[in-house]
Amino acid sequence: MGGTRILLFPFALLYDLVTRTRNFLYDRNILKSVKFEANVIVVGNLAVGGTGKTPMIETLIRLLQDQYRVATLSRGYKRKTRGFRIVSGKDTAQTVGDEPLQIFRKFGKEVFVTVGEERETAIPFILAEQPDTDVILLDDAFQYRIVRPSLNILLTRYTSLFTDDYLMPMGSLRECRGRASRSDMVVVTDSPPQLSDKEKTAARQKISKYTPAPVFFSYLDYGKPYPLLKSDEKVREEIILVTGVAKPKPVKEHISKHYKLKEHLVYSDHFAFKDRDLEKIREKYYRASPEKTSIIITEKDATKWLDICNTERFSDMSIFVLPVKHNFLENFGAFKGLIINSVIEYSQP
Fold it and tell me: What is the pTM of this model?
């Protein structure tokens, strides 16, 4: 344990006391959790930062949308509005947040996408608007104990397992490791695609100290970049990568492996790109060799770029969006079975 962490240890103890007290009150039913008629599936993590929650929500949508009426609910991080809101084609990242807007633009015709900070208040609104809703997917709600889920999915990154982390501010954990016991399954995300059986066993053994839940391994599978503005555009030989995500390293590694990466411009997670930011990026683009250069951005960032990029000033630029999804190393059938069974069991009288 480093010197800085030792200095932060008293603050971590205080933080632990607060979270343990809160959880104790919920565990003893002194603070009440609400259970709803619809099946509620939570996707979350113990640590702050990116673990691939939005791609996991998208994975669940793909699993469920053909058989069930699905809604999603997120708080809409960094949006400029408040309260419950149904995401529509008129919304922007400022009104609903970048990730809910990303989900809406992919699945809006098949899925009821909503935002609301107070989930226990938002869920009745969802059921009032869509009474036939079978499943509500809650994004980043592992700590939101006011709502009692039917299934709790805990995500943790392979390169930073919660088992090796510390409570804030010593580390990035929002709750102590033992709170993983609330999970019904653990998905180790961002795993190396060639992870060995020995390495999987080692990770499972670490996790099993804190929860008996089944453990699955997934990796980020980046798709073929698609054009942001011009459908007939093709990716050029040199790439300027622009990221506003929590963990840009995997994106950079993928681009470096498949393209000639000329420059990587790193912005903070959920960065609210303004016109002036894109103008600076535009200047970099033209100082390079624009005839042989493309800009690649993430899907989350694309929700904000579309609002300000679709003008003549940017129409001559080659801009592409990099899609990403979770692929499972093994046992995807078992994962799917647990999800489907939770919905079936919940719907039975």
Answer: 0.93
